[in-house]
Amino acid sequence: MRVLIVEDHEELAHTVAAGLRREGMAVDVALDGHTGLERASVNDYDVVVLDRDLPGLHGDEVCGRLAAGDRPARVLMLTAAGTIDDRVSGLGIGADDYLPKPFAFAELVARIRALARRTRPALPPVLVHGGLRLDPSTRVATRDGHRLMLSPKEFAVLELLLSARGAVVSAEQLLERGWDEFADPFTQTVKVTVSRLRRKLGDPPLIETVPQAGYRI
């Protein structure tokens, strides 16, 4: 899962980003509305965590432009103003969810995961394929009842492949959705991660390489 945090309070932005990375998410940070909108226009994010009270380009304007665009990202709006009217107006301009500050980090994680499941078509809370079972909320993956000890990136790749429901996912798409903006597009990290993941999944093999296209389960 890839998340963009648009928050002008630098310490808060990087603290939240670090926490989300520990939850296995790929996270980018923007400290103002213009930068956030620019990054959201060129990268495919599952969720944008958007502070409403941004300097320069206000969060309302960013949210409205994101909602009017063709990017699939869901918007979770943050604000220090937590009245009912504030929440209603925030949802009215295109936000998918609304969380007042201060917030509990566990609730933020839960809301991000809930929004990420609201794709088209919607994904179930637990991804299952035969004896393979992956629960994003608990960060647990098992095969035939045996827990798989996966690194965060291996877990992310497996989640993306299962979410594709048999469709081919290219290496570029895996890099785009599973790594942050600092990932080298010419790296072999996706190939290496898939190779390690195959070994941990065991036999019979589950991940198929589709020549010149990518990977699928």
TrEMBL record:
Keyword Membrane applies: no
Modified residues annotated as 4-aspartylphosphate in this record: 51
Keyword line: DNA-binding, Phosphoprotein
SMART domains tied to this protein: REC (SM00448), Trans_reg_C (SM00862)
Domain Response regulatory: 2-116
Pfam families reported for this sequence: Response_reg, Trans_reg_C
UniProt keyword DNA-binding, yes or no: yes
DNA-binding region: 124-217
Domain OmpR/PhoB-type: 124-217
PROSITE patterns for this protein: OMPR_PHOB (PS51755), RESPONSE_REGULATORY (PS50110)
PANTHER family for the chain: REGULATOR OF RPOS, TRANSCRIPTIONAL REGULATORY PROTEIN CUTR
This protein's name: Response regulator transcription factor
Lineage, broadest ranks: Bacteria, Bacillati, Actinomycetota, Actinomycetes, Streptosporangiales
